[in-house]
Amino acid sequence: MAVCPVYSVTRREGGVARGKLMTIQAHHQGELGLSRRYRDLITACLLCGSCTQSCPNEVDTAAVVQVARAELAVKKKLGWFRRFVLRRLLPSRRFLPVLLRGARWSRALWAAKIPEDSGLYIRFSGKKKRRRIPPIAKKSFQAGDLPRAPAGEGMKVLVFVGCVSNYLRPQAAAATVQVLKSLGADVWVPGDQGCCGLPSFGMGEVEAARKLARRNLEACMPVGGPVPDAITTPCASCAAMLKKHLPQLLPDDPRARTLAEKVVPFSRLAVRLGGSAAAGESAQGPLLCYHDPCHLSRGFGEKDAPRQLLTTLPGARFVEMDHPCKCCGHGGNFNVSHYDLSTAISRQKVESVLASAADMLVTECSGCLIQLAEAMGRQRPGFKVITTPEALFLFKFDKPNLPP
Amino acid sequence: MDKSVIKELCGILGKEHVQSAPEDVALYAYDATPFAPVARPDAVVFPGSAEEVASVLQLANRVGFPVVPRGAGSGLTGGARPILGGVVVSTQRLDRILKIDSDNLQIVVQPGVVTEDLQEKVEAAGLFYPPDPQSKEFCTIGGNLAENAGGPRAVKYGVTRNYVLALQVVLPEGTLVRLGARTLKSVVGYDLLSLLVGCEGTLGIITEATLRLLPAPESRGTLLVVFDGMEAAAGAVAATFKAGVLPSAIEFMDQASIRCVEEYEPAGLPTDAAAVLVVEVDGSPPETERLAEKVKAVMEKSGARLIRTGASEEEAEALWKSRRAVGPALARIAPIKVNEDIVVPLSRLPQAVSGIHELAKKHGVKCACFGHAGDGNIHVNLLVDTGDADALRRADLAVDSIFELVIELEGSITGEHGVGTTKQRFIGMELKPEAIETMVRIKQALDPRGVLNPGKIFPSP
Ligand SMILES: Cc1cc2nc3c(=O)[nH]c(=O)nc-3n(C[C@H](O)[C@H](O)[C@H](O)COP(=O)(O)OP(=O)(O)OC[C@H]3O[C@@H](n4cnc5c(N)ncnc54)[C@H](O)[C@@H]3O)c2cc1C
């Protein structure tokens, strides 16, 4: 109760772990059906794991909620639009790029230069609420010229890109590649990889997620292909999906387990490669603060590595904000199904960031990135939210501009 | 419940603050009481003002349905469970701190404010609200008032009741009254304020409270004292007071508790010790130091094996953290625990702890004791496996005999958790029939139609 971000905003039992478990139990005892209200309650969870972390019995409420969602998904109670996105759009190799290109146009036409409170913006951002859609990159990261196989020297690192870094924030993926190279790794980016599958998995669309898992497995671990020493990604959520859920989805394929074993979050890998070897504390440059993504701090239990990296940047200073581990409210689909709640939760985060007096916010998950960029943008237009690899790229290796 | 009643509730509170769908009422069918069967209300309402609360109670009296107040639902004796259905009145929207008055050392709050939030706000102003139930991260002030909650600091600073100056209350028939005064003293009329505090939500719904604050102590010192005998540890408590020291807390943990918590939240407690005391003293820095020295001397005399003074603040915090973790840590080893919070006069503590362990052994149940020994309050935990019906039955028998022992030692069967539904059958052990009868008459006088939190405290005749 003290830790649930949803409860902190709603203050209703339905938000909190105990309430979720009771609801699901009542359903299993046949007392509650799969009603619309039941769906609302079950989708109103960020799967952030805060409750599990503070629970002495380590009850994995997020996992229970996911199972409940899978039941909803199978019994088709998800709503056609989301079903369409999760089952068709994300697993499809061709459709997503086309769609996003289209979106880029419509955005360029309608939203780009239109102030947030304009009726047009509100209308064309597709929801009655005022959404700031992050700008879509001109050219996806994967469309660029990239190393597709290991070159032969140094630690062999495979970079998994993820949707956000591919379509919306190619700088993050580019920085990941560049930084790891600068640290002496032998980096490659398989071209055939797709969405990590977490959005589908989180909503209980197990079959769609399995399809994606299969595709990524073939892309990253082709039979007879090079076996990486490490697989990393600028996004902690993708990393968690590959590490934890991919082998669950493909239990019969031993390669899936090997893949999972190789997954290392970006900052942990960068530290291992000597990325925090130290210039010592800097007295100059912008003041950074760091938001711990749930999937990194709780999923991987990793809070130190990003801080080791960020406190030893020659070109930037670091300050800790209040409650850095508190969930930002994105929660993947939660942000779509419970937009108002999600926004209210992110507002608390914005307050912490502003109170810290930081000039820039760093995080290591694409979900957090989008959420916080939107939330910060609302309060402080122009405030920059970047990923850990970008921070290293900009302030360690002193490269003023990222390749597009 | 009739649809028309729900409609009337919607009229009073607004539709969005009334829930009656089966999914929603299922969420208010329980509190933190172990074993308690679910008890679904017909509706849950979230009033935004005292007037709305009053209207709900007026309606209840007119139509005739039970009304159950609820804070965070962290109670351990079933007080917030709507055992007879009806309407749950949640205070979660009444969650504002209305005023911090640093000149008069007072704070005015609504009942839904979370205890720890209040403490943080107050500390930021250099002040201090001492009552510190170990559930403070989530429980509400309204729940604390209704249960007269205590905590480790009760030794020196007392319990919730000692900090209440005035209350705004909706009485069972729906009348809104103000009790008490904004002064430190007032003897006008009966002390109804004290009647409401600890009433477990049966005599009124508290809608606003004016609480007393203290200046924050300048410094605190923490000592960890290790004993080879459980009785020696318990005896050291009374010896401390006799030596003229008033610590701000003395917490007790027996061996089972130590071992369990060390596994879960290690703080370097010696797992071979029979018992430890965690003692806290406070005051100005020289005063704190002097008191710590005195405590040390008493403890040595009482047979302590080892005394560690919490050198740094972090060390002290680690100790307190492990103390707070005992309850949860015990829940890890046994899925079900019977948790009683008995209290005895200080001089009887040694007899109590050894007697309880003996009785548990006799009935063949595992037992761990810890708690606020400084005020004689010990949490007795009987650890039972889920599904082991025989062990459960033996635990029940053990509880009966433990309560008999407590009464024999002139103690009380509950120090802070209240009676609710789980201890109803025991109140006759402690209170004479005349006393119970008087209480029931008070309840009937204030709540003639029996609508407010019915079926609690007193066993049904
Ligand atoms: C882990 C844990 C540790 C605990 N430690 C302690 C401790 O150290 N000391 C201690 O004293 N207790 C402790 N408790 C018990 C419990 O937290 C307290 O009794 C607390 O005061 C209950 O607050 P609540 O807001 O959860 O109330 P609830 O459980 O919601 O309600 C408790 C009772 O108060 C009534 N009530 C609630 N709000 C109002 C109101 N506004 N007006 C009138 N009646 C109302 C309800 O009807 C009910 O009878 C602990 C509980 C847990 C789970």
Tell me what you see in this structure:
- The complex is a heterodimer of chains A (404) and B (461).
- Mean pLDDT of chain A is 83; it is low at 104-130 and 400-404.
- Chain A has helices at residues 5-10, 17-28, 36-43, 50-54, 61-74, 80-89, 95-111, 119-124, 163-168, 170-182, 198-202, 206-220, 236-249, 254-262, 266-272, 294-297, 304-310, 334-337, 339-356, 366-379, 388-395, and strands spanning 156-159, 186-188, 230-232, 287-290, 317-318, 360-363, 384-387.
- The longest helix of chain A has 18 residues, at 339-356.
- Chain A is mainly alpha-helical and 404 residues long.
- Chain A folds into four domains: 5-78, no CATH class; 81-125, no CATH class; 141-271, Up-down Bundle (Glutathione S-transferase Yfyf (Class Pi), Chain A, domain 2), CATH 1.20.1050; 276-397, Rossmann fold (3-Layer(aba) Sandwich), CATH 3.40.50.
- Chain A is built from 21 helices and seven strands.
- In chain A, strands 5-4-6-7 form a four-stranded parallel β-sheet, sandwiched between helices. A three-stranded parallel β-sheet of chain A has the order 2-1-3.
- By secondary structure, chain B is of the alpha+beta class.
- Chain B has four domains: 3-90, Uridine Diphospho-n-acetylenolpyruvylglucosamine Reductase, domain 2, CATH 3.30.43; 97-215, Uridine Diphospho-n-acetylenolpyruvylglucosamine Reductase, domain 3 (2-Layer Sandwich), CATH 3.30.465; 219-326, Alpha-Beta Plaits (2-Layer Sandwich), CATH 3.30.70; 334-449, Alpha-Beta Plaits (2-Layer Sandwich).
- Chain B contains 15 helices and 18 strands.
- A seven-stranded antiparallel β-sheet of chain B has the order 15-12-14-13-17-18-16, with helices on both faces.
- In chain B, helix 8 (230-242) runs antiparallel to helix 12.
- Chain B starts with a helix and ends in a 15-residue tail after the last helix.
- The mean pLDDT of chain B is 93.
- The chains are: A mainly alpha (404), B alpha+beta (461).
- Chains A and B meet through helix 2 and helix 3 of A and helix 2 and helix 11 of B.
- The structure holds flavin-adenine dinucleotide.
- Flavin-adenine dinucleotide (FAD) is lined by residues 31-32, 68-76, 79-80, 91, 111, 133-135, 139-140, 142-144, 146-147, 149-151, 200-201, 205-206, 327, 416-417, 453 of chain B.
